[in-house]
Design goal:
Layout lengths: L7 H14 L6 H18 L10 H18 L6 E5 L7 H7 L4 E6 L2 H13 L5 E5 L9 E7 L4 H10 L1 E12 H10 L4 E7 L6 E7 L2
Parallel strand pairs: 1-2, 1-4, 2-3, 4-5
Antiparallel strand pairs: 5-7, 6-7
Helix pairs in contact: 1-2, 1-3, 3-4
């Protein structure tokens, strides 16, 4: 478990920034794993463009806080979740950390990013997460929830994501208010529930909808 501890400085900074964003505190073990995740992001981002956000504080404020808030806002009782186009692991890795009862699939078609995700799962000892290195369209199974954030061609991606939601399951894109309304119009077959505001921006929301 030592590799998944992260530095004390990182943990203190993460806790402080999360408090300022309104997300609040994390349990010590979860906080330690977020510290280890931050260490990995900083090291890999130096040679692989995982995120345009470069400083640890900004990563916590703009990525960690939003994803933690989304994880807490997902409905209870969801057994499985697909992170469509996981990239640097947002939001799937924070969701796996904050919701250990979830079985999370991190789907990423770019090999280098998938390699980062595999290393993240190994280092953080995420027994409830697995990596699919390939296109989501190739997967035949369905999930109880599908989430996606900052993917290319969001509207097209949401159409594909909706197809991977099991009947009675949830589609949970993280997007902006204006884009969320377009998604609701695009997928009228989804019983859209509500917008949930996310920290860091008045425009960022989690959109929840249930598949009949």
């Amino acid at each position: 478990m030592e590799a998944a501890r992260g530095s004390g400085i990182d943990r203190a900074m993460i806790q402080e920034v999360l408090q300022k964003t309104g997300v609040g505190s994390l349990p010590p073990e979860v906080l330690a794993r977020f510290g280890a995740y931050l260490d990995l992001l900083m090291k890999w981002n130096a040679r692989l463009n995982l995120t345009a956000v470069r400083t640890p504080q900004e990563i916590v404020q703009r990525h960690f806080a939003e994803c933690i808030a989304a994880a807490r806002s997902l409905p209870a009782g969801i057994p499985t979740l697909l992170d469509f186009g996981s990239g640097a692991g947002f939001p799937g890795v924070p969701m796996a950390l904050c919701r250990p009862e979830l079985r999370v699939t991190l789907a990423e078609s770019q090999n280098k990013k998938a390699a980062f995700l595999r290393e993240t799962v190994r280092t953080l000892e995420l027994s409830n997460a697995e990596v699919h290195a390939g296109r989501v369209e190739a997967l035949e199974r369905k999930w109880d929830a599908v989430t996606l954030r900052a993917v290319d061609k969001m509207e097209d991606a949401c159409r594909l994501a909706a197809d991977k939601v099991a009947p009675g399951g949830w589609l949970a894109p993280m997007t902006t208010l204006s884009a969320a309304q377009k998604l609701k119009d695009l997928l009228p077959e989804i019983a859209w529930d509500r917008f949930i505001s996310l920290p860091g921006s008045e425009q960022r929301v989690l959109l929840l909808g249930r598949k009949p």
